[in-house]
Amino acid sequence: MKLGDHHLKTCIKNFEELKVLGEKAFSQIKDKDFFWSFEEESNCLAIIIKHLSGNMISRWTDFLITDGEKDFRNRDSEFEISIPRNKKDIIDKWEKGWKCLFETINMLTGDDLLKEITIRNQKHTVVQAINRQLIHYGYHIGQIVYLAKLLAKTNWNTLSVARGRSKEFNERMSKKNK
Fold it and tell me: In angstroms, how far is the first alpha carbon of the chain from the final one?
């Protein structure tokens, strides 16, 4: 396998893992929790999801052809909650954004990685653009997990290695990889 193809495959896996991490966090909270915020200027889960979806659709639509900041995107509206507050609509936005990302990135090849694209009139190689999005989405998925953990309180099931369980986890992984 060529290095470029390997890099793309790895990035796709990383995006998939981020999506699953967010969904595991969603599964541990109540529907109303999607709309809770600490205070007026804080983003609730619904806003973070709405922003991620808007970003994904803008960045990944016509990825190699047009600027990643599309004219149809209204970024400021991504930070407003519309009424009615409906979890299904929020999850639909989540899925729509990820669908756009995966359809596009799965069409790329290693030969595309050094091509130049633009985001907000700034030139990026495809590698830079992908890494930029991985960082951006990872940042927001971290927010989602943290908020969900706060909201779930004592009902939270860890999405990582549980505290005080590192040795046990490492031993289990060692046995699994033999």
Answer: 25
Mean pLDDT of 131-151: 98
d(CA 81, CA 123) in angstroms, rounded, equals: 33
pTM over 0.85: yes
Residue listed under structure tokens 């046990």: 168
Q: Where exactly are the structural domains of the chain?
A: 3-176
Distance separating alpha carbons of residues 20 and 14, to the nearest angstrom: 10
Tell me if residue 65 falls in helix, strand or coil.
coil
CATH fold of the domain at 3-176: Four Helix Bundle (Hemerythrin (Met), subunit A) (1.20.120)
Q: Which residue in this structure is represented by tokens 């927001």?
A: 140
Chain center to CA of 79: 16
Give 117's strand partners. Answer: 124
